[in-house]
Amino acid sequence: MRDCSRKTGMARLALAGLALVAFASLHARAAEHITLTNGFDLICDHRVADGDHVRLYLDGGNFVEVSPSQIALAEHIDLPVVPVTTKNAETVQASENKLTDPELHELLAKPGRMHDLDIDLLAIVVKQESGGQVHAVSRTGARGLMQLMPGTAAELGVGDSFAPSENVSGGAAYLDSLLKRYHENLALALAAYNAGPGAVDRWHGVPPYRETRAYVARIIHEFNRRVAARQKISTANLASLTAGTR
User: Fold this and answer.
1) What is the mean pLDDT of the chain?
2) What is the CATH number of domain 17-81?
3) Cβ contacts of residue 153 below 8 Å, gap of 6+?
4) I need a labelling partner for 129 at 20 to 30 A (CA). Which of 91, 165, 166, 202 fits?
5) CA–CA separation, 157 and 180 (whole Å)
6) Domain ranges across the chain
7) Considering just the CA atoms, what is the radius of gyration of the chain in Å?
């Protein structure tokens, strides 16, 4: 259910928090894909029974504790380690018109506010999709910064997918619609952005496609890192301000 009182994309972070933490385990080659009964998908490198609970260990030694009855499905997977700045593997055409990080954040500010999406999240999606190349074209015909297929772009009212502001406005609107569709579950929304809503619905979760799982994991891992860095800076600034008033 969409909460109309929300002011910023950070509210969505709170709702999707479990999924954000769960997909952080990128460094383990062998992992487990865990689907919980509440619909969340987790990637963990191992699990340990602890009394009447199970600890699902994530990246960095962190863990999520659940009861066995909360685990709906568990399967072994392998996750490739690919840097978050790597462009979409299918992108075969690109111009020299590559946006810098400040330019990208400025471009994403308006659609981010309009759709209650964190600008860092949108920026990471852009980097994954096109590497920031305005005229990127994939082998399947997806175009522009957020790699919109022509049919999707038309449905979103995007007249020119190579116009940066039009492309990101359409891409943000599409991601927003997927978050609504999957009740703010960020992992599912990203999986649908990559593989299509039909695949997510058919598999009742993140599809068992290596590319899609790696795509979702990379984006959430990087988003987690950026949010943690922002929180660290905010805490340091608050501590400095407090010390200055004594």
Assistant:
1) 79
2) 2.30.30.100
3) 143, 161, 167, 170
4) 202
5) 19
6) 10-15+82-220, 17-81
7) 19
State the first-to-last Cα distance of the chain, in angstroms, to the nearest integer: 44
Q: What is the pLDDT of residues 99-123, one digit of tens each?
A: 999 999 999 999 999 999 999 999 9
- Inform me whether the pLDDT recorded for 1 exceeds 50: no
Whether 32 sits among the annotated catalytic residues: the reply is no
Indicate if the pLDDT at residue 75 is higher than 50. yes
Which pTM was predicted?
Answer: 0.67
Catalytic-role residue among 90, 106, 129, 166: 129
pLDDT digits (tens, 9 = 90+) for 208-233: 888 888 899 889 888 988 888 888 88
Identical fold for domains 10-15+82-220 and 17-81, yes or no, is no
